[in-house]
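A quick word before the example. In earlier lectures we treated sequence and structure as two separate objects. From today on, think of them as two lines of the same record. Here is O-fucosyltransferase family protein written that way.
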Amino acid sequence: MGLKRLGESRVEKLRNSMTVSSRSRMKLWLIRATTSVLLWTCIVQLTALGDMWGPRVLKGWPSCFTQESAIRALDVELPAARPRVLPPKRVYRNNGYLMVSCNGGLNQMRAAICDMVTIARYLNVTLIVPELDKTSFWADPSEFQDIFDLDHFITSLRDEVRILKELPPRLKQKVEHGMLYSMPPISWSDLSYYKKQILPLVLKYKVLHLNRTDARLANNGQPLEIQKLRCRVNFQALRFTSQIEELGRKVIRLLRQKGPFLVLHLRYEMDMLAFSGCNHGCNSEEVEELTRMRYAYPWWKEKIINSDMKRKDGLCPLTPEETALTLRALDIDQNIQIYIAAGEIYGGERRMASLAREYPKLVRKETLLEPSDLQFFQNHSSQMAALDYLVSLESDIFVPTYDGNMAKVVEGHRRYLGFKKSILLNRKLLVNLIDQFNNGILNWDEFSSAVKEAHANRMGSPSKRLAIPDRPKEEDYFYSNPEECLGTSDERLSST
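And the structure line, produced from the sequence above:
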């Protein structure tokens, strides 16, 4: 009996020890499994962050998953990332909130944003991030943050004006219930108008909404600090999104690999021709189509247009055929790459034939990039225009065939970057010379000499901005020649 009890006791102890051992192994297995899951989760998260932040942060790092990269990592010392220094916030008594709705295309809205930031600063109000035009001809649904780096816009200007992404909740609720005073400011107004007419409305309603904000601040006669702030917003605060900038750098790199390039802003799209009423070189069917389009848009007020008269007055964009003659007359190298910064050219290959014959190296973003590169930009005309803007800034020569908003703003930005060569065509003189050449009145040498002479001083070199009191539409646009901001290269670099 004693032996039996002793055996049973030993068996019981053995069972207990086996149970404890099994539990320990189970705990160890669970710890190992949990650790493995956590490690793989960290790896997946780091990989995702690398895709999202690259190439600024992670894509420049050597990979730790290959022997070769591990060896390279031993020889490479990564520079320490410098923390971003933000300007101090400006402290001021807030007079209210300013909401703005921009109108037009990308560069029309860009200039309006610069003006509205300046006005908000002058009135000591808080600016709500501007709303972009979604109802114009282009019907682009892009928001501000789809085109511009929103956080950079807000933080880089915090020493001048407070900018919010949206109204405070109480005021936002009032606006959503329709309690909002909205109006378009008067065009080409000076600061006294905003102090005497606009500020009292802000103080009264606390929130004021300004719509149709293009060309609402006068070109000339403004204090120097106001003009410099307009430039600061334009050249420093309004930075495109990283996605747009990276794709722009890719296009520029592809062009540079094959030598110098010229950007031709060939403003010969259907909407431009319908709006302006210019139909030189179009057949009868095209003339009818353009006329129908002009009548279809009620805000295009001018309906009956004499195309021949507008062309002779220099108010029409040059045709592709006229452009080819002009570039040849200016002795532009026929082997240079010409990047077409424009939408679809009206008349297609038929109208582009003469230009392609004279300059066979014609390229567009659609021919340089893969369809996958542009898939996120399709049906977003402002984002496509932003890409053309970046390429235009970096080109060896910039040639606009019409003095629209993009031509003017790019011209001014290229002046700011060191008076880069921009050939500013005198269309009124050119069409007269072209007609004389085509009619045999001038031979080629006479025509070419006259074109060169007319444009010798129209290459984007330093010049005085033309001011015409009481006729602001006829004077030089501030953003095409912001001379108050065009100091030396060293001065510009030190201010950035």
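Notice the following. Confidence is low (pLDDT under 50) at residues 1-11, 13-21, 44-78, 489-496. We will return to this example when we discuss secondary structure assignment.
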